[in-house]
Amino acid sequence: MKSYFLKVCLIIGCVLSVFAAMAQAQKGDEWNIIANDYSNYTGISIANGRIGIVPSEQPGKAKSIILNHVFDKESKNGVSKVLLGINFANLEILINGDTLNTDNCSNWKQILNMKEAAFVTSCRFKDDVDFSFSYYALRGMPYCGMIDVKAHPLKNNIKIQVGGQIICPAAYKNIDSGFRVLKDLDARMPILQTVARSPFGKHQLATSASFIFDDETPDLRHQVLDSLHHQLMFSKNLQKGEDFQFAWTGAVCTSQDFSDPKSESERMVIYQLLGNKQVVINRHKQLWNKLWQGDIVIEGDLESQQDVRLALYHLYAFARDDSNLSIAPMGLSAQGYNGHVFWDTELWMFPPLLVFNQSIAESLLNYRFDRLEAAKRKAQNYGFDGAMFPWESDETGEEATPTWALTGTFEHHITADIGIAFWNYYRVTGDKQWLANKGYPLLKEVADFWVSRAMKNKDGSYSINNVVGANEFYHHANDNAFTNASAKTVLNYAVNAANSLGKTSNPSWKEVANGLLFHYNNDGVRMENREYKGEIIKQADVNLLAYPLEIVTDFEDIRKDLEYYEPRMAPEGPAMSHSILSVLYSRMGESDKAYQLFKRAYVPNKRAPFGALSESAFSNNPYFATGAGGMLQAVIFGFGGLHISEKGIEQKKPCLPKQWKKLTIKGVGPELKTFEVK
Fold first, then answer.
1. Which SUPFAM superfamilies does this entry report, sorted A to Z (predicted)?
2. Among the options 399, 411, 445, 472, which is catalytic?
3. How many domains does the chain have?
């Protein structure tokens, strides 16, 4: 064990030094992250809660489009997997016959403008012409994206040839690509389009796209490049010093959301094409400005300000208040974990969103409530009462975990995590009608599940046996600390919910909650499970009892658990554990240790050049929205001293790191309160 810990310390030290150097190279200001080097490149998703566009380092290119909660099978014998959209977000540009790319351009720069959710690539082609490409995943038109392009010839007259492309993923079937010019009176509407079936035929997908010009439309021609790839092209002669601007816009629709995705994608493009380009851009900016009413301002530490705001930007980008959809661990940046929904949402991402945007928080909860009947069926199928939510969830609400993964069969704490999120929403909003219509009906089913899931011991106590807890390294755990604690918490919350509505709660809820067992070693440290013998753990488990569950409240007990489990956390584990430890040290008033753990939680996971978070220090699967949620909780509930209580959101004992001059958390709760820490 000792040699293992020494090795871990050496690895962590190396990782921290490498990524600290990377972080120092991060450029920009408090709202803009600037990249000037693409030699080690990980992009940043721009998203609007429905689609995510993942730009490339190449000017005018995008690697992929990710769809939210649109699934087909990931293989013949596999489970569901979120689909890629048919990608419209690529431009091919030739200048005097030479193709623009990173090999023949200088002054390359990319900027993520978090304030306006715009991603801008600029470059200079052979000292002849400056280009700028501004990408938007339009917030007001959630199935649409746009590339706004500017060209400025510097020395000579030039001829540019532009191809707006649609690229279909190779696995798609029945691909039908074409170009039409629609006409109505004097309106001429050129539409490039690809329609296809998803790999196993579950959905029809349609992408339409077109150019938007400020002045007269040039002649357009259609070119088929291969079976997956076609483009709409135009040519234009530009005079020296003459600015030229145009846009390429596209819409991605599927049969998940539309009965006729082909026609609807055309209408969305036509709406922008005929006089509404600036309208939709302005609306996009207005909606993002409203989102940023909820914000975190850090003075005196630009790197931390950028990192924290980038985390909050991603949670806003990956969710909507009108979708009733949830957030996968990788959000809308990649297909990681098949785009399924885990406890990552309720335990890690939901609390910051609940603080800043109760409408988005409610939308996330609606995702679960809409699938309550499926959870009740699952409980029945396994011999339990109430509702049993799946470890991995897709659009069906049924279990979507691959069958080889024991988490899908045994990681039951998610049912409690969901119930806890529901009660916290009520604590923040005080919406009694919502509690009666949605909150309590779900909490009742969750509580009934845990009563049926717990086993009564001979001495009258209760155990929950044979589970996978938050520490997923340990299979078939009995009395896992976090599982028992989350069940205890949600059972008590169900009682509180019944009392709030004047209802009589099931007496068994309180009996089981009071009787659940926790086990301790000889030093008084709470054991991760009944048979735990000090093994390395994947991530925080016992420490979650102090935060967010607040079952362990005595600082001496909290410290014992912290000092015991911190060195036992695997370095390859996910980012969130050290965020939890940071919150706890903040609440004990130890700002130096809290800040160290805050940085440890995410700096090794940052990827150049924008600081995208990977799941762990040793993986490369950004953007890990779960880690963003943990980082934000360290700031809000640790340094900021905020607590979610029966009084709503209140500030108790903030703890400002010496590296920061001031911390401001604004737009908090329904009253949009501001909390300052100096």
1. Galactose mutarotase-like, Six-hairpin glycosidases
2. 472
3. 2
